[in-house]
Amino acid sequence: MQQQLTFAFLGNEYRSGAIAPYLEQATNFLAAHHARLFIEPATLEEVDFVLSMGGDGTFLRAVNRIGAREIPIIGVNMGRLGFLADVHPEQLMVMLSEVLAGHYTLENHTVIQLHATCSAGEWNPFALNDIAILKRDTAAMIRISARVDGALLGEYQADGLIVATPTGSTAYSLSNGGPIIVPQSGSLCLTPVAPHSLNLRPIVINDSSKIDLEVESRSHSFLVAIDGRSMKMADGVQLSITKAQHVVKVVKLQGQSFFTTLREKLMWGVDQR
């Protein structure tokens, strides 16, 4: 007997009007195929798939909710770009049909983790996209000493430093001149934000490396942004970034590739002449 699948819907409340008709279709479709759909459940225990409907921000919040459970996530784009949430709402029924039939692939995405020698209260140290060390709004440049596996990489005098996964290489890092990195390439990128020196450029390292950071600021404090979730930290805090032990599993239709998404979302290689 085929196992009854359970889906959890996590959506963008500000787009509830646009989401409602597609959510109703999904609910009716899954019920007709003996699957269950829970709307914004309090817990994700015993959930087989998470259905994220919104934009990339909604997708990241869903990833935050999933944590280390490695529940496969289906990202439906109700926003603008939708690089992470790359399923068009008109394709939702096709995607659900293929998932129920088992005709899909799971793409594993690297997660990175921040370790800090301070008490930051309740916080989620995991990032799918990036961890950024940034100056505060009105502060001068900060100095960041970076070591990779114990070896000194360099001293960054800049507005900040981004440590990006391959998934995050098309986000904040890209807007600061970082390279696009193919998922599952086993690498991370360190991208400076507005560096004071022209000799500081993005550098790609192995994702098994440990990155140690020390920060100095004239304001004696700086910001750490983990997938956009920011907190203030004081000078003297020892920071390290490593690859997490879990991954994020993204549901893809068979035949769907990263390069297709690049061409469709970033107009990669398109010549408008």
Distance between the termini: 57 Å
CA gyration radius, whole angstroms: 20 Å
The domain tally reads 2
Helix content: 10-25%
Structural class, please? alpha+beta
Architecture of the largest domain, according to CATH? Sandwich
What's the total number of strands? 16
Order of helices and strands: EHEEHEHEEEEEEHEEEEEEH
Helical stretch tally: 5
Largest sheet: 6 strands, antiparallel
Task: List the SSEs and their pairings.
Elements: E1 6-11, H1 16-32, E2 36-39, E3 49-54, H2 56-66, E4 73-77, H3 92-101, E5 104-116, E6 126-127, E7 130-134, E8 142-148, E9 151-158, E10 160-164, H4 172-175, E11 187-193, E12 203-206, E13 211-216, E14 221-226, E15 229-234, E16 239-253, H5 258-266
Parallel strand pairs: 1-2, 1-3, 3-4
Antiparallel strand pairs: 5-6, 5-16, 7-10, 7-14, 8-9, 8-13, 10-11, 11-12, 13-16, 14-15
Family: Belongs to the NAD kinase family.
Keywords: ATP-binding, Cytoplasm, Kinase, NAD, NADP, Nucleotide-binding, Transferase
GO cellular component, one term: cytoplasm
Q: Any overview of this molecule?
A:
With 273 residues, this protein is of the alpha+beta class. The protein folds into 2 domains: 6-103 and 254-266, Probable inorganic polyphosphate/atp-NAD kinase, domain 1 (Rossmann fold); 111-245, Sandwich (Tumour Suppressor Smad4), CATH 2.60.200. 19% of the residues lie in helices and 38% in strands. It has 5 helices and 16 strands. It has helices at residues 16-32, 56-66, 92-101, 172-175, 258-266; strands at 6-11, 36-39, 49-54, 73-77, 104-116, 126-127, 130-134, 142-148, 151-158, 160-164, 187-193, 203-206, 211-216, 221-226, 229-234, 239-253. The strands form 3 sheets. Strands 6-5-16-13-8-9 form a 6-stranded antiparallel β-sheet. Strands 12-11-10-7-14-15 form a 6-stranded antiparallel β-sheet, with no helix packed on it. It has a 4-stranded parallel β-sheet with strand order 2-1-3-4, with helices on both faces. Strand 8 (142-148) and strand 9 (151-158) form a beta hairpin. The termini are far apart.
